[in-house]
Structure formats: structure tokens, C-alpha cells
Amino acid sequence: MPLEPYAYALRIRLHDTDAAGVLFYGHLFRHAHDAYEAFMEHLGFPLKDLIGTGASALPLPITQAQARYERPLRLGDRVRVELRVAAVRRRSFALDYRFLDDRGHTCARARTVHCLVSQEDAGLPAELHQALIARVASAGPSP
């Protein structure tokens, strides 16, 4: 049975919007990143510990990001972000995000790809790889 997507809630604030009171397009990725941080902590891999500094730091930059906007998100809207693991490889993983308004309408979709860039590491740590693989069953359609 597929896992439910990880859910993250937010509200569109004034500083998120453009002059028309609609979510400024670039801020969608900021909210996706906030959901990603909360998701990784939920899995037991808080980013402050995972990517931190020093010898144990694990660089996982976003190497690809895309979004599709379907309906406007406006000032004051309550939004539910559903995050699903779309793919896991030895040195990377992809996350899909679906942004829903309070009526359940899909307003936007996004995908980010995170890649291990350190040449010294053979791949993602086994515990992180397994935690992400366990979530792949919940993957929905690509954006």
C-alpha cells in the first residue's frame, strides 16, 4: 500500500506576492524548499546535521528545478504542499511537490533533483538511501 505524501502547510503572506497580490513565481521554490527541509527532518535527517560543516558534511545541492503553475495562489490563501519521493539513485534523488489550495485544487507542481557532488563519497549514506527508497512507493505522477 502506497504511503501518503508528506504534507506541509503554509499561508501566502504579503511578502510572497507580487503587485497583483498573487504568489510571485520564484517564491514557489522557497516554499518547496521549506517543505523539503521539514520532510528531511521528518525522515530523521535534519539538514542542519546532514549538510552542516566539517568532514561529515554531505553536499546535496539542487541540480535541477522545474515548476508548472495551474491556478493562482493569492494573499491569505492556506496551502497544503504534498511532497513525494519521485526517484532515488545512488548519488541523487528527485522530489515532487503539489501545491493545493484549501478547496483541494492543484495550484502548482514542482520537482527538485538533489545530487551528491562530493567525489570522495561512493553514494548517499545507506540509511538515507533506504529512507528515501521506502518513500518511492508514494510517488505520484511527474509534474
UniProtKB/TrEMBL annotation:
InterPro entries: 4-hydroxybenzoyl-CoA_TE, HotDog_dom_sf. It comes from the Bacteria. One of its GO terms (molecular function) is fatty acyl-CoA hydrolase activity. It holds the Pfam family 4HBT_2. Keywords: Hydrolase. This is 4-hydroxybenzoyl-CoA thioesterase.
